[in-house]
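<goal> How does this chain fold?
<body> The protein record starts here
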Amino acid sequence: MQPRTRAIWVLLFLACGFTVISFHLIQIQLVEHDKFERLAIENHLHPETIAPHRGAIFDNEGNVLAETQEVYDIRLDGLKMKASHPEINLPRIAQALQVPPQGITAAYNPKNRYALLAHEVDDTVVARLRALKLDSLIFDPQDRRSYPNNQLAAHILGFVDDSEHGMAGTEKEMDKLLSGVPGERWVERDARHNEIAGYQTRETPALDGYDVTLTVKMTIQHVVEEELDQIVQTYTPHGAYIIIVDPHTGEIMAMGSRPTFDPNDHTTFKKDNLENRCITDMVEPGSIFKIITLAAALNEKMIDLQTPIFCENGSYYYGGKTLRDDEPNGTLPVEEVLAKSSNIGFAKIAMNYLHEDKLYSYARAFGIGQRTGLFQGQGESAGSLSPVDKWSALSITRIPMGQEVGASPIQMVDAMCVVANGGRLMTPRLISKVTDSTGRVVSVFEPHVVRQVISSEAARDVGKALQQVTIDGTAKNIKVRGYSYAGKTGTAQKFVDGAYSHTKFVSSFIGFLPAQDPAFVALVMVDEPHAKQNQYYGAEVSAPVFADMARQVAQILNIPEDQPATPATTTLSSTSPSPL
């Protein structure tokens, strides 16, 4: 081949080669630029999630009920320790951690560069370790949810899982707002995956979670917790419930039940302990349901407080069954029918003045058979109220006194709040407001009127009758020193194996204080109290707890006394008349 020809072919070959290379360069730099940029980023840059700080939960006075603390996992770089006298420094580390030296020595491995020595230690321990000035120690920051008051308000607060996501209570209800929004940081690492600090790239900061303020007042919640513990110690019941509410706003000042748990201690996380029984449990309320029956009849203007009711001298045969009172009563005015808690009297009020449809309608209007919406999706019971076409011939005589109907403790509190709030049913509330980390208010939860259930006049008359219960009725021996109050006792037989038990009861008292201008409504309910000498009546078990608690709450709220000094609270004996 001639040199000239060979040169031409060489030039053609080089031209083709450069053309192909240029084509590929154009393809890479222009056409597929985004693709190769992404591959380069993936090879050299690594995304890391920046965890947000979970918001705190406060009571209505700013006291911390739940918070996230920064703690540290302590790890050991075995390779670096190998070069810095492990025989001297490992015992020093053990002393700073206040653990036996053998445990630290066993964890040491020159080939392990990330050995865990201690989990979630606080700042005090970290300070002791940093003072050792050992570059082999790794301080790995972690977030830990903390509940400073342990089991106080446990069912209200709930708890979080290991990823700090709410699993119950307020933690679950407000999880989205408390959690915040994670951020992202891209870092460049070398061939050994060590971060090259000088080459940090873009970063999207995390948005910390909002803080949540509850309607709960910690000082009142503390009183409730102490009373619940005393109930458990005295009666070893199947369960116990206390709820205190501002009837005018629906704000829950305190709420608790037993059994309970400590959200800091996962060993207490048993199913029965975790349930918020104030909203999940359904019980036949017994005589405290008579409040609804009386309110309905008064609102219909079919009766007044002086209307005479013949109570059949304590025994009334109807529908093939005999209905009895604890003591024989003849003709009583309606006010005394409630004060003496006559089952027969209330059966007759319902039969003669309300009938099935109106009794059913009013019970529904008071909220029976409907969820309140408190802690949605957390097992709240709707209660049980069968439609009229499912009633038996006896239902019109049994439902008025709280049998054949189921209600949760929170529903009965809401019903009493109707009476204490001029006939208006309020939505119960636990959340007061939401704020950001600077204290700026993000949202406020205002009181909400569900409906006007009864007239203010009817509510006032029911209140008068309830005060009479505490003056000369079933709670006459229970006094709240310095204060007037109104309320109703209840002793409900539990329905067991198809029949009403004569040994298992739900003892309750629900009331408000002061009697004329209620500042709070409170319910005390004890499920299956085990008492000496058959002292299981609501007037014996629950009313004294209400009285003791109510005075403390009144003092915390600075409610002026409206009664002269009275003797200390007393408990009725088992022979006291009609302690229903």
